Amino acid sequence: MKLYMDVGGTTIRTELHTYDTIIHETYISCDHELYDLIGSLLKRYPNILFIGIAYAGMIHHGCIITAPNIEVEIHDIKQKTEQIFGIRVEIENDVNCAVLAEAHDHTSRDIVALYVGTGLGCGVVSDGRLLHGHDSLAAEIGHIPYKSTPFHCGCGKDNCIELYASGSGMLKWKQYHDMKGQPDLLQLRHSDKQIERDIAKMFEEALLTATGTMVTLFNPEILVLGGGIVSANPYLVEMVTEQIQAYALPEAAKRVTIVQTRLKDAPLEGAKYLEELL
Ligand SMILES: [Zn+2]
Questions:
Q1: What does DSSP assign to residue 30?
Q2: Is there a single domain that holds both residue 114 and residue 76?
Q3: Of 42, 94, 145, 213, which sees the most CB atoms within 10 A?
Q4: pTM of the model
Q5: What is the pLDDT of residues 108-142, one digit of tens each?
Q6: Which CATH number is 157's domain given?
């Protein structure tokens, strides 16, 4: 048996693959410490031999370094589970898992996935390999310096591109201008208030800059766009396709194919490929 998990800030989704069936379960993240949940699942299903985990946080060599939206007690989850239970565990950042799933879905060895939701996340597979960097901090496009803002990013700076091209960024701009409610790109674009249309415009401009930067830096065959804001606003894929030329090295922009993700839960799908990685 194999267990795959997608651990997010709100929910933990699991898929247990037995020899003849797949069992899906969902848990509320704040009710479960990951290590305890794994322990209880291993008690229920003692034949699990491999666990692949997509995790919404920074992961380095099987260890949870930070998780912005999850409380963590046990950080060295891979080592501890492997030692205590004698099975193999692989854990990887969720966006990195997502780009692995996209690479398989598109049969591509050079692919960039950009997910636009609460944050702006990015994963890169280059020449068939998942890009990590020395400290597993590579390709953090959301935190490149862009334009200064009157507020701060979660990373501490006040000029990150994520402060423009993300749901949390648009929310901060709304709050700064004393506007109520969650940001809705569609509503902002068609608002009769100039300031709301400006927030939408800033979002689009920053997203084009982010995609253009990734295309210029990594020269992918395919750029996949996903995340809640893209699925609610599929026009963004068309917008990036039409305008990427002005935001990227022209030769790289000419060759890249820009698509919207076809995967329902790319991180969970990607967790299934962690076993192949060494
Ligand atoms: Zn930042």
A1: G
A2: no
A3: 94
A4: 0.93
A5: 999 999 999 989 999 999 999 999 999 999 999 99
A6: 3.30.420.40
